[in-house]
Amino acid sequence: MIGPRHTKRNQRSPRILFRHLAPLRFILYPAASMTRGAMTMDGLQTNSTEHGCDIALDGLCFAVDGKAILSDISVNLTASRIGVVGRNGSGKSTLARVIAGLVAPTSGTARMDGLHLSQDRKAALRQVGILFQNPDHQIIFPTVDEEIGFGLRQLGHGKDAVAKMTRDTLTRFGKSHWAGAYINTLSQGQKHLVCLMAVVAMGPKTIILDEPFTGLDIPTKAQLNRYLANYKGGLIHITHDPADLAGYDQVIWLEQGKLAQNGAAADVLPAYIARMTALGGSDDISDLAG
Fold it and tell me: What UniProt keywords are attached to this protein's entry (predicted)?
């Protein structure tokens, strides 16, 4: 058991260091209060309130083995709710990893609050959290407590402080009864929530959501969306479904690794939907790569 577990942990450690996700690895707790206004969701607050994103991409390019994945992307992302849309293979997930500092650009720059996160791991831990599609690719510990506590230890907190902060996080999310629960007993949606709690516990300013709703049923998706709506930090939501971005402020549209459009959601999303609808009437599925 020790050998395989250590192997699994070593394979995932680069991602885990940047998981906090916010946090959005993912990104969005039923606490005693869960809606804006009369009730609050303290579990979803960061160290700042209503924090907008401050991300500058300048001539950003990323390639793998000489193949361009992202090409010459220059854009400033400043809203508190930012969507990134595009077809499968358009470079959305790669962009998320570049912004989070998980990988460095091949050329050009990506800065968050003026920092190159790929060059400053400690800053990255506090600046951004990222949530991926599959929580099983993010979770590495057997219990809820251990999973939430891992990121806090990465921030340098001692054993007693980690234990208290973990309990506090579960309480704020209305999940005190999850203490000690084994991950393998949880549903997929509950695992997503564990990832979210682990990210939020670290207090990042921004959470990147990399298509976290894929494969979830409608009720689970609605509940996670409710958590997200109350998150006080910045959110960057990667998706191919415009419905996920209701109420978002800014949207960028990627097409084959290039920036097709950037602007207010009210302007970009209708254009994106019209283009995707037109493509749906074609037969480009027949085209082979290369």
Answer: ATP-binding, Nucleotide-binding, Transport
